[in-house]
Design goal:
about 375 residues, mainly beta, Immunoglobulin-like, 4 domains, four-stranded mixed β-sheet, 5 helices, 29 strands, about 45% strand, elongated, transmembrane
């Protein structure tokens, strides 16, 4: 198991593989050692000296998105005799992204009848980094009406909550402008800002309410773009503009906004792009219903992406020996790996060859096979 910082240059030293395997100088080359990875993507390169180096500059966010830890799997193959060693390369995050709000201005409508101590959750900032390098804290510009708390979501993300310190008076001041700042855990921290516009409203005494606080939906990954996922519906006892509702996403991640769209009038949520079970298996949508007076109600939609058998197994040939000496038993002819990104029954694989051939398949490790002669071959009876 090795670890390396992301964004290091191609050719950067990772470790001395020969030393870690307890092999002498030149023994790796004598045994024709090579590095294998799933598919055709190679991140590491083995030098004659036994040093393991980076083949290219690696971007953790590109390879693993927000998955932490970011682990790249590889195998070390030694021939003569054949031996496999499993390897892991952990890609460590560096603070190369600043927090960013999806909107330059956050509109917050607050009734003048709101009592001190009332809390108002604000929209979160996005940060592609992970761990301590992602958003850790929020601050608000100095003012006489509000202070700010930074709280933890159930999924580990941090979000800001504005707390009212003293009663608002619309006739005295109808709106306030505040600056919300998001800080990550870097040293020094990177920051992102958004303006918060607080509009003070006349009294509206009924907030929208959803029939359920949590909706659970299952969506097949092959559903076409534009498919209806679910329709949410809220009610408001007020009349006129105070009873007219508008639906929107609330505190949603980039992944949610890219994959789904919501009709502000009807509450219909539809697919905006094709889903991929192998990439993202579930989404959590927070929906806000706002009335014309600035009050709002919220609900959560948990969407489970259902796997479809949409990936064929792949076979990656690592070693192929086309010329075999006759009269030599137990000769390794080929070494290859098989993979299938699907899950469950859709991802189970079986590997076979024709019955009449003088070879047999031998499973080595984790879907890697060797093709070996079943007996000594005779060129005079069959040359190929």
């Amino acid at each position: 198991k090795y670890s390396v910082l992301e964004e290091r240059e191609s050719g950067s030293y990772v470790a001395n593989l020969a030393k870690d395997l307890g092999l002498g100088l030149g023994e790796l080359e004598a045994r024709d050692a090579r590095i294998l990875s799933k598919g055709n993507q190679q991140y590491l390169q083995l030098e004659k000296s036994g040093n393991l180096i980076l083949k290219e500059k690696l971007d953790r966010e590109e390879l693993c998105s927000d998955t932490d830890p970011c682990i790249l799997h590889f195998q070390v193959l030694l021939k003569s005799p054949v031996h496999f060693i499993q390897g892991e390369l952990q890609l460590l995050d560096i603070n190369d992204h600043a927090p960013e709000f999806l909107e330059n201005e956050i509109l917050l409508k607050i009734s003048e009848s709101s009592h001190p101590g009332t809390a108002f959750p604000l929209k979160i900032a996005q940060d592609l980094d992970v761990g301590s390098n992602t958003v850790q804290n929020y601050t608000i510009s100095t003012n006489s009406y509000f202070h700010l708390f930074t709280l933890n979501h159930s999924d580990g993300r941090r979000y800001p909550e504005l707390v009212l310190d003293k009663a608002l008076d619309r006739e005295e001041q109808s709106e306030l402008r505040l600056t919300l700042t998001a800080l990550d855990g870097g040293s020094p921290p990177r920051t992102g800002t958004s303006q918060v516009l607080v509009v003070v409203l006349d009294i509206n005494d009924n907030a929208p309410e959803f029939a359920q606080l949590l909706y659970e939906v299952q969506v097949p990954e092959n559903s076409p773009v534009g498919s209806l996922v679910i329709t949410v519906f809220a009610t408001d006892l007020d009349a006129g503009t105070y009873g007219e509702l508008s639906y929107s996403f609330f505190q949603s991640s980039n992944q949610v906004i890219q994959a789904f769209e919501i009709n502000a009038v009807t509450g219909e949520i539809r697919l905006k792009k094709p889903l991929d079970f192998e990439e993202i298996r579930s989404y959590r949508l927070e929906i806000e219903a706002s009335d014309g007076g600035g009050l709002s109600g919220k609900c959560t939609i948990a969407i489970e992406v259902m796997d479809v058998n949409d990936n064929a197994p792949e076979l990656t040939m690592s070693v192929l020996i086309s010329d075999i000496p006759e009269n030599t038993p137990d000769t390794v002819v080929a070494i290859f790996g098989i993979s299938d990104p699907d899950s469950g029954e859709n991802g189970k694989m079986m590997c076979t060859i024709q019955d009449h051939l003088p070879f047999f398949l031998k499973l080595t490790v984790e879907n890697f096979y060797t093709l070996v002669t079943e007996r000594a071959l005779d060129r005079e009876s069959q040359a190929e």
